[in-house]
Amino acid sequence: xxxxxxxxxxxxxxxxxxxxxxxxxxxxxxxxxxxxxxxxxxxxxxxxxxxxxxxxxxxxxxxxxxxxxxxxxxxxxxxxxxxxxxxxxxxxxxxxxxxxxxxxxxxxxxxxxxxxxxxxxxxxxxxxxxxxxxxxxxxxxxxxxxxxxxxxxxxxxxxxxxxxxxxxxxxxxxxxxx
Length: 178
Known about the structure:
- The structure is a single chain.
- The protein is of the alpha+beta class.
- About 25% of the residues lie in helices and about 35% in strands.
- It has four helices and ten strands, in the order βαββαβββαβαβββ.
- Strands 3-1-9-10 form a four-stranded antiparallel sheet. Strands 2-7-6-5 form a four-stranded antiparallel sheet, with helices on one face. A two-stranded antiparallel sheet has the order 4-8.
């Protein structure tokens, strides 16, 4: 199993992202991600065996955290990787959840990322050599996205395919009120 942990988006935010990204779709050389796959990744686990899966589920079930306010900020790019993103404001609450998730998975054999956490939603990837110049000129004004409160985070399984990845929800983990 190829797994990751993420926060799902609300229908309102998905609609706003769909509208914002639709005006950028004429950019060549991009593979657009499906709106139903949009999420905020907390931790990518990668290839996972059954024992690790059971460990992760048990550890994440014991993790208790309040619900998290989520605020998308703007459309932008990770140029070196050739990725169009919607950035997500890194709040203390979101960082705390991400740190608690990665700490919970460590006893299961997963190593935390060494790079700083940059919450975002991947909207499109470059098909070949990244050249996002044309796309960057189309991202003119700051977007105004609806804020929402994340009431759960999910364990997803990723299935790679010729048109991109497809995700299935394996487990849900509720976040309690404040």
